[in-house]
């Protein structure tokens, strides 16, 4: 369903599957998976390594959840769920090891783990006629781009969040 290469060692990658498992794999090994992470109860739509704290990664799923993982532990660290809807996409901020964005069909959310692990710090609803499908933090500006089912891309200026800090998780 999805995959992501490790940001520092591109020999390693994660693969999210339809059965809810995530596999850590190696390009130099064509045999067994290196690790299996079990935590989702539905298809895994996205896996993404944290670019600033490279032992951490997130996954999102049709089971309405986002899970934070550590590379060395096959047990989830935290599970986030703010809405009863499939989580279609997630992305770490490139400016803070604690911040990520997520989209489900009806809304986009920004989470800051320094502020809360229970609720997103910001949430915006989609237009009634569209469903959110993808999210991306812009690299050189404080913007969040959100794609929807009508082929449109919304650009949100991200301001007044807690001061960004590149500290590790």
Automatic annotation (TrEMBL):
SMART domains: WD40
Subcellular location as annotated: Cytoplasm, Cytoskeleton, Flagellum axoneme; Dynein axonemal particle
Keyword Hydrolase: no
GO annotation terms (biological process): cilium movement
Record-linked InterPro entries: Dynein_IC, WD40/YVTN_repeat-like_dom_sf, WD40_repeat_dom_sf, WD40_rpt
Keyword annotations of the record: Cell projection, Cilium, Cytoplasm, Cytoskeleton, Flagellum, Repeat, WD repeat
GO molecular function, a single term: dynein heavy chain binding
An annotated GO cellular component: dynein axonemal particle
Protein's UniProt name: Dynein axonemal intermediate chain 4
Organism: Melopsittacus undulatus (Budgerigar)
